[in-house]
Amino acid sequence: MTVDVDTLLPILRRVVGARVSNQADAEDLVQEALARTLQHRDSIEEGMVEPYAISTARNLVATMWRTNARQRSNAHRLLEPDDGLAPDERLLAGEEQQAMARALGEFTKDERALLFAHETEGLGLATLARQRGTSAGALAARSHRLRARLRAEYLVALEDEPPSDRCRPVLVAFSVRDRRRQREADAEMHLLECDFCARVVQPLLERDEQRASEIRIPVGADPDIVTARQAARGVAADAGFPGTELTVIATAVSEVARNIVRFAGVGQIAVEQIDEPNRRGIRVVARDAGPGIVDLDQAMADGYSTYQGLGLGLPGARRLMDEFEVVTKPGRGTTVTMTKWHTGGQR
């Protein structure tokens, strides 16, 4: 379907401009709404492009209001809307306050007391440890777990009750960024199977974007393959990989990015540095919500390729990296996680 951009732009600017006073923010939202409309133009019914674009713009504005309201608050305090909030912002803040109250209701009295003492009252861990007869290290670990759980419970409280008992452990595993817990909970597969968690987990995944050692690249077209490859080289170079290994990493990333473009259409690649006590490296996570892989064993067989590309495919990417894992479900999508360790060992 053809989209008349010249007609849509003035409409989107009126819709967003009536709700957002900051011109720079408004223009960003207009461009994002237009980009999403163009991205999904083939699936929009005839005559519905304009309503789709307007609805998308309104949703983006609402999301910005919610994000701004969260940023004004302490991440672990009940929100207290000030008198300067607009009516829409006040409503959002009130909803978030209720959600935080429900989230805290999932904790024991002692757990709430620890959260409030450390996060709200500002008491140091050393002081709290003396009061509780434990070590500061043990209390720090417990406080970290409680904060991660609170983030997950808060996001759940903003939605409906989760559909299964697996949801909370999976969301907490992503919140605490514990790869071991994610593997034990089969978290990546759960995200492919559970629409609720796939939606709720997004803010937890987006927290990673604030990390200077990680980059996220949306992938939806051939130029994005180049962008992903270049981003991976940059992160790997910052981690100290030599030139030959930079090429190896870039090639592997190209293959998984090409798979997203060819078979899923839209996805995302995250590239992050790993810095452990005895080694450092780079981890790449390629995630999409495409058709999935029906026969994973066949797809991972050496020499197998379903497109006319470099001929490496997933088996080639696996050979290039030190660790390689594929989680897929037909009709739901695929997540490829691969890791390359620096051969130089310790820093």
Low-confidence stretches: 74-81
As a percent range, the share of strand residues is 5-15%
| Helix and strand element order | HHHHHHHHHHHHEHHEEHHEE
Q: Report Rg.
A: 23 Å
| Biggest beta sheet summary | 5 strands, antiparallel
- Helix-strand makeup class: alpha+beta
- N- and C-termini, Cα separation: 54 Å
Helix content: 55-70%
Gross morphology is: globular
> Would you count the extended β strands for me?
5
Average of the residue pLDDT scores? 80
Number of helices: 16
Trace the largest sheet across and list its strands.
1-2-3-5-4
What does this structure look like?
By secondary structure, this protein is of the alpha+beta class. Helix content is 57%, strand content 12%. It contains 16 helices and five strands. The protein has a five-stranded antiparallel sheet, with helices on both faces. α3 (49-71) packs across α4 (87-104) and α7 packs across α8 (167-175). The N and C termini lie far apart (54 Å). The model is unreliable at 74-81 (pLDDT under 50).
